[in-house]
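Re: weekly structure request thread

Next one in the queue (271 aa):
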Amino acid sequence: MPLFPNERSVRTTPEGLLWEPSERWVRGRKGDVTVVDSRRPVLVWEPDLPVPCYAFPREEVRTDLLRPSGNPPTGSHTGSQIFYDLVIEGEAVENAAWTFPAADLAGYIAFEWFLRWGSGLDHWYEEEEEIFIHPRDPHKRVDAMPSSRHVQVEIAGTVVADTHSPVLLFETGLPTRYYIPPEDVRLDLFEPTDHRTGCPYKGRAQYWTLRGVQEAPPNIVWSYHEPLSAVGPIKDRLAFYNEAVEIIVDGRRLDRPVTPFSESLRPPRHR
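Done, posted below.
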């Protein structure tokens, strides 16, 4: 008998979808209304999206709150057949849910999360933990490891951070991020902004912008004041986008990586 039973392996559909059952208890709310309460969700990966979504058995969804969409989008999901509007107390969220045509996923309904603001539910939970942006990929690792490497950060020729006690964050599919103690960052050169983001692996981040340097994009440095427990060592430390700054580790200047963030981090005059 195999160590992991067949029903837990990743499967492929003729449409190019990947999917696998999840054992997590997942709930989704819109306002005070629980729309999804599922102990038998499946994770689905679409070919053109880097992150998964959940799909749920119909019997674990408040289908009485769904109506067929009158204005379904085209090309937003792989081979999607039917879209639904979510209607609660007379207020409709267009195309909040959909079905996949794959035979393996017949009887399942998927919902928008937060990749498209305002198009999905307000809050999602795995067990008792709130999840942000998108479901966590069980095949992706995020490790925060204290280190004694010598890390320096330069922007436009100025050293803005210099530390021998970084926390290195290794995240599958992204470059290593170097989280630096605030006392080792020239915070006097930066100003806080109103920009905020959420991450299903780390939590909610706040940002700073470098004053008066046109070569530096805004919101170039960030920090997690209350990170999720799995990455607790990064608490209150600051990280810089490797894509937009010079990072020197143990005397070696790193190449700037190209990532999905690269285009948005280019200075406006270079876009």
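The longest strand covers residues 190-199. The radius of gyration is 21 Å.
Next request, please.
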